[in-house]
Design a protein that fits this description.
Strand order of the largest sheet: 1-4-3-2-10-9-8-7-6
Distance between the termini: 29 Å
Largest sheet: 9 strands, mixed, barrel
Helix content: 10-25%
Number of strands: 19
Number of helices: 10
Length: 421
């Protein structure tokens, strides 16, 4: 859940630096990459240098393992053999010595100082391999659509994917699902670290007779309107409800919701209202928000081999200054009541190495709250993380490094379960 708090050794998110210089810096133009090693954590650092039409050089530092770039900095010094950059917004700096195809230097942030060596690389080498990315030609059709959440004045844009063997607009007797992303504003593919899990799921389901609607979150990509600054999960639920209504208007008879992380909370909210015909919860919370967040922090401490643990009260006190409307609502929300009112079939799945929504805590809670239904499926997958990828530790830093977007077993189980209803 991307909005959830993460403890990291460093807060390097990326930095955009504009360089003005009198001397020629063409020898620096290109892409530079290195590793920032901080004990148990290693972050990839990428430096892009190019010149604009006026000859002014622009330099951008990225931290792709954290999916971030674009924080402005200042060049304090630059010459043919040295570079010094300060990034006031994150209290960081980098000083390096330029020798041929490398920049040897020191990255400092607050009281931490670490060596950083950057080497000149080809930009194509930075593109991660994503073997599950769907490739044309496709045996199914898609349609770009928009629908409206009138209550919130939000117009959502998305892609309606029809099952294989059906022309656009046909096959509406097929089962359809609305795909609802996790926390944070995301596009219709739930894109993260150049993975597109919702696109991969939609492609797989279309090839197995199931239609899907995935949409850009409000205020994201092609979706416009809707309150964002003070929006909570309850507001985003109304967007998903509008998506369900849209599919009903298109003539689909059986419609479910696949929700990932916070999207699963939304699915259960709508399930309690009797809206969907079935629910798929991927890495969905089953416990109150404050308990969920505390368990996440303690899991990360455990992965960092720290003996320290925090209590729920202590954790909430530590983030009291950061409580925006979304986080305040999430902390206070307990999904148990909504789950207890769900009468449709539910497939609730999670990875054993998920460090954001702990499987051992949340799956039993979902199972306990759910009314009995012989079509329910509760399953924990060994060795999978929050994105349902096969992984080593479950750390967020692994997401980008893993080539697999989503476990083939999960894809098959979802398809088989839906088609078996």
């Amino acid at each position: 859940m991307k909005r959830l708090q993460r403890l990291t050794t460093l807060c390097l998110l990326g930095m955009a630096v504009h360089i003005s210089m009198a001397q020629d810096t063409n020898n620096l133009e290109g892409v530079w990459m290195g590793k920032l090693n901080a004990g148990l954590q290693s972050l990839t650092v990428v430096l892009h240098i190019e010149h604009d039409t006026t000859g002014k050089a622009t330099c951008t530092f990225d931290s792709p393992d954290q999916g971030a770039k674009g924080i402005a900095g200042t060049i304090d010094h630059i010459s043919s053999d040295s570079l010094a950059v300060s990034i006031a917004s994150i209290h960081a700096s980098f000083k390096g010595h330029i020798t041929g195809d490398s920049i040897q230097g020191q990255f400092a942030q607050s009281l931490i100082s670490l060596p950083l060596s950057l080497r000149h690389v080809d930009e194509s080498s930075l593109r991660p391999n994503r073997p599950q990315m769907p490739k044309e030609p496709f045996p199914y059709s898609t349609q770009e659509v928009t629908f409206t959440n009138e209550a919130d004045h939000a117009t959502l844009a998305g892609t309606l994917c029809y099952p294989a063997g059906n022309r656009q607009g046909d096959g509406k007797d097929a089962t359809a699902i609305v795909m609802v992303s996790g926390s944070g504003q995301q596009n219709r593919d739930e894109e993260i670290f150049e993975h597109k899990p919702f696109l991969v799921i939609a492609d797989y389901l279309a090839r197995h007779g199931i239609a899907t609607l995935r949409y850009d979150d409000r205020g994201t990509a092609q979706s416009v309107g809707g309150e964002l600054e003070n929006a909570t999960t309850q507001d985003f639920m109304r967007d998903a409800r509008a998506a369900l209504k849209f599919l009903r208007q298109q003539g689909f008879k059986r419609i479910g919701i696949l929700g990932h992380s916070e999207g699963a909370v939304i699915a259960f909210m709508l399930g309690a209202l009797g809206e969907p015909d079935f629910i798929i919860s991927m890495g969905g919370p089953g416990v109150k928000g404050d308990t969920l967040l505390t368990s996440q922090v303690n899991k990360i401490l455990e992965l960092n081999q720290s003996p320290m643990r925090v209590t729920t009260k202590g954790y909430i006190e530590s983030i009291s200054s950061q409580l925006n409307p979304w986080l305040r609502y999430f902390i206070d929300y307990d999904p148990a009541r909504d789950i207890s009112f769900v009468r449709c079939p539910v497939m609730a799945i999670n990875g054993s190495l998920d460090c954001q929504v702990i499987a051992g805590l949340n799956l039993p809670a979902i199972s306990k709250s759910l009314p009995d239904n012989d079509k329910n499926l509760i399953k924990e997958y060994p060795g999978l993380n929050h994105l349902m990828q096969h992984c080593t530790t479950g750390r967020v830093e692994e997401y980008r490094k893993i080539e697999e977007t989503i476990s083939p077993e999960v894809l098959k189980d979802i398809s088989d379960w839906i088609n078996g209803l």
